Queue: 2 jobs
Job 1
Amino acid sequence: MNPPALQTVDVTLGPRSYPVWIGAGLLAEHARWRAMLRGRHALVVSNTTVAPLYLPHIEAGLYGLRWASFLLDDGEAHKSFANVGRVLEALGELGATRDACVIALGGGVVGDLAGFSAACWMRGIDFIQMPTTLLAMVDSSVGGKTGVNLPVGKNLAGAFHQPRAVLADIDTLATLPEREYRAGLAEVIKGAAIGDEPFFAWLEQHAAALAARDPATVQEAIARKVAYKAGVVARDETEQGERALLNFGHTFGHALETAGHYTTLLHGEGVAIGMLLAARLSERLGMSVPAATIRLQRLLETLGLPVAIPPGMDAQQLLALMRLDKKNTAGTLRLILWRGIGHAEIVAGVDEADVLATLQTTG
Ligand code: NAD
Ligand code: GLY
């Protein structure tokens, strides 16, 4: 069977607009991404898992440049300020000038840190995203949020810095562990759930093919989610309003991730449970109907995602963690809820008693 044809989604941001290319074999299409490099220096940031698999695919494309690679150890713990410092030192050793380019080859951890490093070097140089996880292809590589974790919390230091291009080579998903793949699907479902009902129906129809990683179906799902996110980012780049909807399920999800000490649940798994909790809470507040919640739960389950709060997590503890998550007023929370599939909205002043009751009934 022939691989699906390349798809391009444009992120339209005036002079900072860029293409997101989605297709098979793109890492080896050197001329395509090499054309995005303006200068003579490139630093490839990757990690010790991804680089042995995929750095050889791009090396020949760097021929003639002064380039080096910087490899992080694998894991969220390495998305740190200390490693930004090391990337900047590597750029210094390379002699990188203002027209140098950082290439992020890896998942969201690599992309966020490499992008932030590019934002810092000489107050901002180019970077190209080459995402290799489904989550990074459909979410973190698009939209220009870059940053690192601090001891006091996740993603607390960062910058908006848009890439020059995003190159999502779906062939790299062949080596992605099943659990990581399914966690990425949660972010695909999220886009459909908050703002694209036809896409949600499409996901329901193609759930079996997605679970089986059929390349054409996976590529189409990535392209549709990226197109949705690109529209949101174009309308609200710096999250003054609509972009906050992309956090559907995240306040619940972050609390679940934190309660599990970031080892029990992957981010996408926390988002899956969190979206269902947000749907249940919306129902409780009279914003939505049970049929919408049931459709969401069924799709999550079909795609192998968790839908229940893991055993041992206490509702009061989760509520306390949710209070810390965002700017809330005393006794109430500001959350992303929905009016059914495709209709998320920001709701301030949600009574903590309703949140607690929702948490207590979702074990
Ligand atoms: P990750 O980068 O840790 O990758 C997950 C695992 O898969 C890692 O072990 C990695 O080494 C491995 N891996 C990556 N590609 C692989 C491949 N092709 N084959 C085999 N193994 C592979 O995690 P993630 O889920 O990609 O990203 C999570 C990060 O993204 C978090 O830090 C989160 O805060 C961030 N994020 C950022 C945004 C944003 O808008 N910037 C949005 C969502 C998430
Ligand atoms: N992942 C949320 C955003 O990009 O805004």
Job 2
Amino acid sequence: MNEKVNKTAITFGVFDLLHFGHFELFRRIREIVGEPGKVYVMLQVDEMIEKYKPGCKNVYDFATRQKMIESLRTVDKAIPYEVVGVDAVKNVDFNILVVGPEHTNERFQELFKWCAKNGKEVVTLPRTDGISTTRLKEILRG
Ligand code: CTP
């Protein structure tokens, strides 16, 4: 029997000041999983952003970032996480991890190994050129 397996993808980020690069990322992930599939955005909590990126002043707090992301047609759910790693995903039912090309640090390497051992596919998508939250903040600052 040709049993159809629904695809569920997760991806990690802060997603402050949503911009075209984020929309493109979610659109591409939706294309990968298809319509019956699910797109879950792992969204970093405020306390950890302050800890790991000192001086990074977010415009939107977690609850607002979550509301904005969950209002998008391409996304099903935004799930809080503290740090990238197995702990963040062990209770999430998914089969594809989507990352950006900058996601190469040790924590991601560990997670990639865990994915390989646990039958999860890892897909790296290119960034959209010319835009980032950092760049947007610079433009707004003038
Ligand atoms: N991303 C993308 N294209 C961009 C910017 C981001 O595809 N132009 C992707 C990243 O590769 C990552 C996700 O969006 O997978 C979340 O990135 P995040 O760090 O929240 O966005 P940035 O705009 O890169 O934020 P910052 O400038 O604060 O690093």
